[in-house]
Amino acid sequence: MLLIGIAIFILTGCSATRFVPEDEHMLTAVAMESDPKGFNTARLEPYVRQKANSKWFSLFKIPLGTYSLAGRDTTKWINRTLRRIGEKPVIFDTLQAQLTCNDLRTAMRNMGYLHSDVSLATHVKGKKLKAVYTLHPGAPYDIRHVAYDIADENIAELIESQDSKGLQIKEGEPFTVERLDAERKRLTTFLMNRGYYRFHKDFISFSVDTAAGSNLVDVTLHLARYRANSSSPEQNHPQYVVRQVNYPQVPLRQRVLENNTAIQLGMPFSNADLQRTYNNFARLQAVKYTNIKYVEVPDSQKLDCEVLLNMNKPSTLSFQPEGTNTAGDLGAAASLTYANRNLFRGSEVLSVQLRAAFEAITGLEGYQNKDYKEYGLETKLAFPRMVAPFLSRQFTRRSTATSELSFAYNMQNRPEFHRRVFSAAWRYRWSREHRPAAADRSPHNLQYRFDLIDMNYVHMPWISPTFKHDYLDSVSNRNAILRYNYEDLFIMKIGFGITYTHANYALRANVETAGNLLNALSGVAHFKTNANGQHTLFNIAYAQYVKFDFDYTHLWAFDSHNQLVAHADLGVAWPYGNSTILPFEKRYFAGGANSVRGWSVRGLGPGRFRGTDGRIDFINQTGDMKLYLSMEYRTFLFWKFNGAAFVDAGNIWTLRNYPDQPGGQFRLNHFYEQLAVAYGLGLRLNFDYFILRFDFAMKAINPSYSNNHEHYAILHPRFGRDFQFHFAVGLPF
Q1: Axis crossing angle, helix 177-192 with helix 153-160, rounded to the nearest 10
Q2: 402-413 and 241-246: which strand pairing?
Q3: Rounded to an integer, what distance in angstroms lies between the CA atom of residue 197 and that of residue 308?
């Protein structure tokens, strides 16, 4: 599709000018330069009012080329369609260019370049025009002296007593209007959190005087006294205290209301407490929206607060059918979910889900039953607070954590085996958002997860004699990893995770460990050992391992239509003590829509291992370590369509040398030779609330092959061997 678009652009690029009126010009490019060189012009690009036609991948003007294919007869549907999905030529506007010069000049002066200027040059060729804005910033100004002119003596005393650490304007620092605005915002926030309910930023102004013969300025901050209206006399700003907090009748316990109300009786009004109260009630699933009103008590500087809550429906029942397709085997599934959002009148959420699935399995010989059936029950109880002993009420009020108790039972009946899985967990979640006062810093968010206990019991009540003979007991096909995953197993783990998100990047780190507590108890309680020398609990061997995961994503936005995203994903898991093999659910796999996209799911690795039998190689194509690296260029196409060009690299490895996975062990001096590489193009349908993704990928370097012809697939591509298509919902990272 991209090649077709490029051809359209090449063939029709010149014909776009036929839509340009006489005596006017099509804006083909906009450049920004500086005199002298070295000034950062990129940060001023948003002030350019008129830009040239958009480009796919910042290179190809496909939308303009599409529009150019349309004829002038708009009664034909093809012409209307091409114009609608295309982009008409941008006609250079002298007024917009002049306004751009004014905006650039103002922006530079706001940045402290008080004697800056801008010049515009246009280069015309036929009906095409290139605009070049040259910035002449001059020398920047610094702050020489800061003075305060505060007419309200109470506020003056309060400001003098504050810590100077948060000041946004300081002597010796560069002068910018952003710093003045940040200081105005900081002082307004400071005062509104100390009882000044009627204060706003318009009471603060600045005067700036330049020092003759130097690039220095003197800044004076003025804070005016309070006036209720233009005809009322000036007075000191009133400082208010909260007298009482009222709650109209709501189906929540009084203690829940009080714990989520940060507004404190008898304390000065605080806008921060007001916002925290809004945030606390917004977290409650039982609450639809919140409205908080303050009423001034007559003839006093006191406030009465009223917290109005609009509640959600307490209970819901939902039904969700779905279709399944597993390697060509068709099936259907359905789930029924009941949710109660206010179980104990404290916005506790109880959810109970019943799920059933059926799939007709084909291609199996020697098995009596050819169908797959699954039944599941999962129940969760979430508390909108941290539930733990020995916590003070003050800590509970400040905490923004949630606690979750969950139980699940899953029953799977396959032609090869029957599996039963029971799980139970107790988890905590909490977050913290930080919004810095400085105008040039973006807010960031920290989210934490702590799995205090997470237990899984896997029971295999029945295994088909055919499957047992062919794969578990057969000398020729005996596989330690396969056998381990068809035995009863008990996993008791704890885990901790942290997610940090910023405007342009995000990182996640998780660690979990299992079996350590049970291993410590085994010596004291004298746990039995099985034939393999493993300690057992209730005659079931328990897993023991430690696992680390880390991933990082960084985004560079070039403009509103184009961005580059880099992603790195590293994971390591080590079985030890009571385990020599990781449980199958904890092992890593490579390939698929969210991995190295030139391979199918579980089709890559470990290392240079190459599977041959698809029926059991999904077990062998797993590992104890993963490394994924991706680079994806994303661009807007038209309407709801977005495009992407990507390069993926990575693989998985085992940390031990398993005989059934030759070439799969990680070696520090050889692992880079086993990195698989893929490249491709993607098409996305962006409906805002969800994204449909179609990725078309080709293998570039295939570590499963040692000969150059097949190893370097990018030099010797073969569509049937190297191509892979993926359909998914959501972005890969």
Answers
A1: 110
A2: unpaired
A3: 20
Alpha helices, DSSP H, located in 331-453: 393-398
The kind and range of the H/E element at 149 are strand 142-150
Of 350, 369, 349, 347, the residue nearest 358 (C-alpha): 369
pLDDT tens per residue across span 23-43: 899 999 999 999 999 899 989
Does residue 699 register a pLDDT over 60? Answer: yes
Q: Taking every pair of C-alpha atoms in the chain, what is the biggest distance, in angstroms? A: 99
The token pair at 731 is 């972005």
Is the pTM above the cut of 0.85?
no
Distance CA(344)–CA(351), nearest Å, equals: 13
Adjacent-strand bridge partners of 691 = 686
pLDDT of residue 6: 52
- Each residue of 138-170: pLDDT tens digit? 999 999 999 999 999 999 999 888 866 778 899
More confident residue, 601 or 253: 253
Q: What is the pLDDT of residues 407-418, one digit of tens each?
A: 999 999 988 889
Residues ≥6 apart with Cβ < 8 Å to 112: 140, 141, 142, 174, 175, 176
Q: Give the 3-state DSSP-derived string for 368-400, with helices as H, strands as E and coil as C.
A: CCCEEEEEEEEEEEEECCCCCCCCCHHHHHHCC
| Burial of 343 (C-beta count, 10 Å sphere; 0-12/13-18/19+) | middle
Residue for token pair 């029953």: 411
Q: List the Cα angle 407/408/410 in 5-degree steps.
A: 165
Q: How far is CA 717 from CA 87, 227, 700, 710, 714, in A?
A: 36, 78, 8, 8, 5
Reported as a single tens digit per residue, the pLDDT across 47-74 is 999 999 998 888 888 888 888 888 777 7
The C-alpha angle with vertex 460 and arms to 459 and 465, in degrees rounded to 5, equals 170
* Helix/strand/coil for 170: coil
